[in-house]
Amino acid sequence: xxxxxxxxxxxxxRIEKMLRSFMIHKKDVSFSKTVKILRNSNALVSQYSxxxxxxxxxxxxxxxxxxxxxxxxxxxxxxxxxxxEWIEEELRKPxxxxxxFQKYVYCFQSNDELNKLLxxxxxxxxxxxxxxxGKVYRGLLTQKGITNWLASIDQQGEMLKSSYHLKDIxxxxxxxxxxxxxxxxxxxxxxxxxxxxxxxxxxxEALLITSNGEPSAKLLGIIxxxxxxxxx
Length: 232
Known about the structure:
By secondary structure, this protein is of the alpha/beta class. The chain is 50% helix and 16% strand. It is elongated and about 80 Å long.
């Protein structure tokens, strides 16, 4: 039966080989340096960089303190071995946004009446809706945009009519609040997109998933900021 140190080193060596395959240049640098380089451009490595750097220290302790080929002074705990093997599997086969977030997406046409959308909000408890004009994507309408529109009507002293069209509301919505991604995008890349927008002081409300990341393709699913908070 394999000891924990054997399992740990085997998994570590496989991870090291994978990380070096990600490197375009400087393939001969240390494991820790490789992690620090890759975490700036690789969402997966960025997610687990702290773990990977700690694994490097433990690897050194095991290798340098080994008395002989059959005995290691530092034996990792079970949870450490399970953790490194789990991360190895994530690096080898990361979760993709499809099928993780595959779902029916409620979409509307820009000339649809607001009442139609409000009914879906009430029945389905949803708050973000892709809006199209024919087959052309026009943007993401949110409850915040609707609230901004209602506030403008109140400030102007207008009376609410029995019906409005969604295109009347769009001027009050943030037109950079959504982005299309391909179905083979990793979950970690999606998380980084939300973080990147936040770092620029802009709120990304949703990622819309199609087969190739093009707005003209059929919607396969949606990832909202709330979804990211639940999995981060």
